[in-house]
Amino acid sequence: MRSIWKGSIAFGLVNVPVKVYTATEDHDIRFHQVHAKDGGRIKYDRVCQVCGNSVQYSDIDKAYVSADGDQVVLTDADFAKLPAAEKHEIPVLEFVPSEQIDPVLFDKSYYLEPDSATPKAYQLLAATLERIDKTALVHFTLRQKTRLAALRVRDGVLVLQTLLWPDEVRAVDFPALDDAPAPRPQELKMAETLVESMSGDFDPTEYTDEYQIELQKLLDEAIASGSGKVETAASAEPAEQPDAEVVDLVAALQRSLEASGRRDADAAPAPAKKAAKKAPAKKAAPRKAAAKKSTDGKTAARKGA
């Protein structure tokens, strides 16, 4: 890996020099566009709309257009004057409970490597974060953009995860949910049983990108054939799927439970059975008492006679 940034974490008065590395990589198969007629590769040309000439990337500046149509052009020298462009420090703002950070805010992840001959301060910060089970909120400036980020530990290594700003998360308002009926107790019970039957410990190595595997297989077969094209076979028509709105939820849950090896008895609510057993007992008790009282009354009447 190659570091993309150097700086230091400011943990109070403790300075932790670090190098920053991108923590993830994209394994998607890359394609380029070609002319469908002859297979010639399509190239893009940066053309100026004023002079009509091609422009090299080194001669391109950035422009901002306001809502009123006013344009402001900024050069690399202008961006370099901004305080954020010169900031190579990651200050710790505060420590917060990890569960309070909504996962929707997470953006990109970076590994931090100690950039010091004696990484004692790095190890101290990592060990502290593990012991307190909290996440450090920090400021992180990368590529001329200041970001809020979460600093945590993964396998003994400090990990920086940039966070979206609150106004970057869209607010949702779905009218269809306003008058939606609440799930019935029987549906909830069966759904919970289905969840239990499908529960387990998360192991990311158990999952694979089937699409990429099949795509690579398709490409390998085309290369092996020497034709340079994929031989397509007639695909079967997809089976007609029932409308999700008209499917009986209880029936669908029951079929799901049966497919997972569970039975309806596991999801049937137990309180109803208990109530059915107790009901006759409460009615029988008064009849026995009344019968005993009637018998005692008859016996007393005979003795009096």
Question: What report would you give on this structure?
Answer:
With 305 residues, the protein is α+β, with helices and mostly antiparallel strands. The chain is extended and about 65 Å long. Helices cover 33% and strands 22% of the residues. The chain contains eight helices and nine strands. The C terminus is likely disordered. Strands 1-2-6-9-8-7-5 form a seven-stranded mixed β-barrel. A two-stranded antiparallel sheet has the order 3-4.
In short:
The chain has 305 residues and is α+β, with helices and mostly antiparallel strands. It is built from eight helices and nine strands. The C terminus is likely disordered.
Q: How much is the average pLDDT?
A: 81
Shape: extended
Q: Name the poorly predicted regions.
A: 263-305
Could you give the order of strands across the largest sheet?
Answer: 1-2-6-9-8-7-5
Distance between the termini: 112 Å
Radius of gyration: 35 Å
Proportion of strand residues: 15-25%
Characterize the biggest β-sheet: 7 strands, mixed, barrel
Question: What is the helix tally?
Answer: 8
- The percentage helix is 25-40%
